[in-house]
Design a protein that fits this description.
11 helices, alpha/beta
């Protein structure tokens, strides 16, 4: 005769079975390809870093690591996709400042919580923005850009890699502080924006430095300042925004890897270890150095605290900008 367990006992047995199975599943992870979601179009810094780190990660984890671009709405489309994914370690987010620190404050309601919806696994790199103009704009410094815009007496367009991006918020901060008649044009990623800037359809932009170095060296674009606190190794002669008297334009984009909240601790630890090992991979380090990104090894708890501090520090600028994503 079949014996039936009381409901509470059955629930306890099920819970115990899950508890026993989870370490076993975590120990076997990964057993299939891993997907890294990039929240911007191909060609931007997050995309380049994702594709560069996928190579050593594949070697460390023994499974294919596939990069998938899901741009739109300040990176919130791709981030939301990851937030809703199963927390099994097979869907990851190439996180960065825009979808984590900026976009949620510009969405009402926000489709995810930047802290509660994710496990922030590892910081990978940081990268500053650069203030650039089309060569037809007759200025060589940021103060000269302010003077030129005011003298034009008409609306001047500036571009960024997307509504709600760091470049957008920096531009709105610049506009408000300097009392400028400028209008933001948001693109679905930096690559199409840069093409329009080179083509003269935009006057200036705030965009990540490394991907623009080739255009700067070929004199297709003219840099005015970098948004980091110190000068950048790729362009040591370029002043910082601090040096030109604009401290509120200091900003560095972080690039990291996050997973959906609820990921098992053993999987998170294994993933963190694989990422940290990948950061020391010679080809990866060389690629990021070539692009001007600063590799940033960091423990998982320190990265979690770093992300929380970033969100808090960006909140006033986002609010003051008035930028909205919907």
């Amino acid at each position: 005769m079949q014996m039936l367990l009381p409901r509470r006992a059955a629930a306890a047995v099920a819970t115990l079975a899950i508890a026993i199975a989870t370490p076993a599943l975590a120990q076997d992870w990964p057993v299939k390809p891993i997907r890294i979601v990039v929240t911007f179009a191909p060609g931007g810094s997050s995309d380049v870093v994702a594709r560069a780190i996928a190579i050593p990660l594949q070697a460390k984890l023994g499974q294919p690591v596939v990069v998938e671009n899901k741009p739109g709405a300040g990176g919130s489309i791709g981030a939301g996709d990851v937030a809703r994914a199963a927390p099994d370690g097979y869907t990851l987010l190439m996180s960065n400042t825009t979808p984590i620190s900026l976009a949620p404050a510009m969405l009402d309601p926000a489709p995810y919580d930047p802290i509660k919806s994710f496990a922030h696994v590892s910081l990978v790199a940081t990268v500053p923005d650069v203030v650039m103009v089309h060569p037809s704009v007759p200025v060589k410094t940021v103060p000269e850009l302010v003077t030129w815009i005011k003298a034009k007496g008409e609306t001047i367009n500036f571009g960024s890699g997307g509504i709600g991006s760091i470049g957008h918020i920096l531009g709105e901060t610049f506009k408000k502080e300097q009392g400028l008649n400028i209008e933001h044009i948001g693109y679905r990623g930096s690559a199409p924006m840069i093409l329009d800037l080179i083509g003269g359809r935009l006057s200036f932009s705030f965009d990540t430095l490394p991907q623009n170095v080739p255009h700067i060296r070929s004199e297709k674009l003219r840099p005015l300042a970098v948004t980091s606190r110190q000068r950048h190794a790729l362009m040591p002669d370029l002043p910082t925004v601090l040096e030109v008297g604009m401290p509120n334009l200091v900003a560095e984009n972080f690039i990291g890897i996050a997973a959906p909240a609820g990921i098992a601790a053993p999987i998170q630890q294994k993933l963190h270890a694989a990422i940290q090992a990948s950061l020391t991979h010679d080809a990866f380090k060389a690629r990021l150095a070539e692009l001007g990104l600063t590799v940033q090894p960091m423990s998982q708890p320190d990265f979690q605290a770093f992300v929380e501090a970033q969100i808090k520090s960006w909140a006033p600028a986002v609010k003051a900008s008035g930028a909205k994503l919907n």
